[in-house]
Write a structure and sequence with these properties.
This protein is mainly beta. It contains three helices and 45 strands. The strands form two sheets. The chain has a 43-stranded antiparallel beta sheet, covered by helices on one side. A two-stranded antiparallel sheet has the order 20-21.
């Protein structure tokens, strides 16, 4: 038998042993009658009464607080274990460590990219290590606060939010939104400021797919601008007129409407001359009679005519399509650009296509077989079985799903690098993945992870709660870990050693290059060295 202090884990020097500090604190509160003790000078009756209730309290706090801790400089077999109350372990898939208090209730993850504290599912915060950013969630996705550099955003259930930071023009912009009633933006540039109180009065800029919007007693009057086109609406959507460069139009919906634009050339952001295609559109008694011409001035002008629900056709140099009646009728398409011909009756449930660019056999929902030069899809009894294969070098991607998310397999290969990533899941039983770098992780159970895979916020706020079993492996470093019920059972292996522990570290065993070591209730029970 050697001295327990003979083998010192240098990697653990200087690491705080918070659990043992707590234990020492409680042990220091045990009454002492010796010289300098807090009960020195007390009568025997007083000592019995005082120490009795303290010892009873300590008993209810649990046996863990009275168990001895390993010496400060000695390496514990599972780094810093203290039962269900606290544990600290080395990360497997990256450099760093992880601390857990009360099993799934509180944890701290200090990794290479971020430092995360969480009380799932109530609160979490993640501070970037290599990038200047931070994320804070409260009952995600109810309330979130995110910052990336000087930009920030705070939201409450996507209804109330404010955001700001330095824009691409190097100016500070601050937004406040109480959707859909109040919108405000303030900037160093006055022209970027706006305030809107919906539906009474207001102006918006660069919101809702418009460069600018202005209204008075919405929908009584609305003016919007998108690029060079300005549209005025009165009693939206019934009456509007619009104008722009080489453009004019108007409508009295649904009776009659038109819009015309002549083709013209302009200089783009890169200083190149670019053609803006023209178009002509009209409708009478929408949607029953519509006609349009698009791509005017280009090599592929497109003409469309709709007399709904009786007839619809599209004609262009690249593609012809005829359908009657619309939309659930016979359809015939000749695609000269992609080199295939397609028939459907009724569209889109029964369809067949032949040609170099596309082969299709579909009788929905019984089967759907599609093949293109870079993609193929197979559906059997949709959504019972769905498979997709994309081969577009250097990417090769295969995905198989059963009943949407009940079972899923995704495999991606980088043909140039010769690496493969893979993900498998069965909702809600497990999720497993392996990255291109050979890092693997298995989690049992997985309620949201298969639906929103590899989502940082879901993983941070929820996955830790239901991860009954966690297994990780790094092929590059040779490290691997398995954990059951938040370290009730834990096993670690590396090229240098193998460790395992039971009952939250009450029993531990390690076998490695430095010999064999064991602990029972944190007390060394055997130490041996290799000769």
């Amino acid at each position: 038998m050697g001295n327990v202090n003979a083998n010192v884990d240098k990697s653990q020097e200087g690491l705080p042993n918070k659990a043992c500090d707590v234990a020492a604190l409680f042990r220091s509160r045990i009454p002492q009658t010796g010289k300098g003790g807090i009960l020195a000078g007390k009568s025997r009756t007083e000592v019995r009464g005082y120490s009795g209730w303290i010892h009873l309290s300590l008993l209810f706090l649990g046996l863990f607080f009275l168990l001895p801790c390993p010496p400060a400089r000695a390496a514990s077999l599972v780094e810093q274990p203290f039962g269900f109350l606290y544990s600290k372990v080395r990360l497997t898939l990256e450099e760093g460590y992880r601390q857990e208090w009360l099993g799934p209730l509180v944890y701290h993850h200090s990794g290479e990219l971020a430092d995360t504290w969480a009380i799932p599912p109530l609160y979490s915060q993640s501070i970037g290590v290599t990038l200047d950013g931070a994320e804070r969630d409260f009952l995600y996705p109810l309330l979130t606060w995110d910052r990336y550099g000087e930009e920030y955003r705070f939201q409450i259930f996507q209804i109330f939010n404010f955001a700001g930071g330095r824009s691409m023009q190097n100016t500070n912009v601050h937004r406040v939104t109480f959707f859909p009633f109040y919108f405000q933006q303030r900037s160093d540039i006055p022209d970027r400021n706006y305030t809107a109180l919906f539906p009474i009065y207001g102006t918006l800029k660069n919101r809702f797919f418009r460069d600018e919007s202005y209204w008075v007693l919405w929908p009584l009057y609305i003016r919007s601008k998108k690029r060079d086109v300005v549209t005025h609406n009165v009693l939206y959507p019934f009456l509007h007129w619009r104008h722009g460069e080489e453009l004019r139009g108007g409508q009295f919906w649904p009776l009659y409407g038109f819009e015309e634009r002549e083709p013209f050339s302009f200089t783009n952001h890169w200083g190149d001359l670019q053609l803006q295609a023209g178009h002509r559109k009209r409708f009478v008694l929408w949607p029953f009679f519509t006609t349009s011409q698009a791509g005017l001035g280009t090599t592929n002008p497109v003409r469309e005519l709709g007399i709904l629900p009786l007839y619809y056709h599209q004609r262009s140099p690249n593609r012809d399509m005829t359908m009657f009646p619309w939309p659930l009728g016979y359809a015939h398409t000749v695609d000269r650009e992609n080199h295939y011909t397609e028939w459907a009756a009724p569209w889109p449930f029964v369809m067949f296509a032949r040609g170099e660019g596309k082969t299709l056999n579909r009788v929905f929902p019984l089967f759907n077989l599609v093949k293109r030069p870079t993609e193929s899809r197979t559906h059997i009894l949709w959504p019972l079985y769905m498979h997709q294969h994309i081969h577009d070098p250097p990417l090769d991607r295969k995905r198989t799903r059963v009943l949407f998310f009940l079972y899923g397999v995704t495999k991606e290969t980088n043909l140039d690098a010769g690496t493969t990533s893979e993900r498998r899941s069965v909702l809600p039983l497990f999720m497993w993945y392996r990255t291109h770098q050979g890092k693997e992780r298995l989690q049992i159970l997985a309620f949201l992870d298969p639906i929103i895979p590899l989502n940082k916020a879901i993983n941070r706020n929820y996955s830790h709660l239901w991860s009954l079993w966690r297994a990780e492996k790094d092929a590059e470093t040779g490290r691997a870990t398995q954990s059951l019920l938040w370290n009730l059972y834990r096993r670690e292996s590396s090229p240098e050693s193998k460790k395992f522990s039971l009952l939250f570290g009450l029993f531990q065993y390690e076998h490695g290059t430095n010999g064999r070591r064991g602990r029972l209730f944190y007390v060394p029970i055997h130490v041996s060295k290799h000769r």
